[in-house]
User: Fold this.
Amino acid sequence: MEGEYPWYTLVTAAEPLAQGDILHSVPFISPAGDLRGDSRVDCEEYDVIVMSQSCDLIEQKVDSVILSSIFSLDEHITEIARSDSKKAVVRTKNKLRKGEMIAYHLLDRCTVPGHESGYIFVDLKNPRSLPLEFVQRLAAGLPYRVRLCPPYREQLSQAFARVFMRVGLPSTIPEFTE
Assistant:
């Protein structure tokens, strides 16, 4: 089944920017001061995946691109498990695998030659954006980039939507006992 539905493909710089494209070391500027006349800023780099819809990017229906940070599961699992105990780590990995952690989405290992990686997870709760032209220039400056393939790209998009479409109700229907 893996060969039939690969998780990733490699695209060239000539390919237009699309949902599911992975970009490494993307710079983001954020305020560093106390916002009372202090105009210092920090610049941090993140590995990201493009979350904006491909049709909006290609047809330039948007001015900015929604991006979500991606992280190595092995390097960051103890942070999201909030423990370094083996039991907690395994439990958290399986919760991620089943989609039970609404803030994160797990992606499979990348086996594209020259672009191999372990499992990665997407931080869905803290999306960022950058101007469309800037991200297009970044992508065009790379000889190749990894792209998440369907249906995994659509699954990621659905997970992203779930983070923002939740509705908290003041009361719920009680659990049935009979």
User: Anything to note?
Assistant: Residues 22 and 49 are 4 Å apart (CA to CA). The mean pLDDT is 93. The helical segments are 54-58, 73-81, 86-97, 132-140, 152-165.
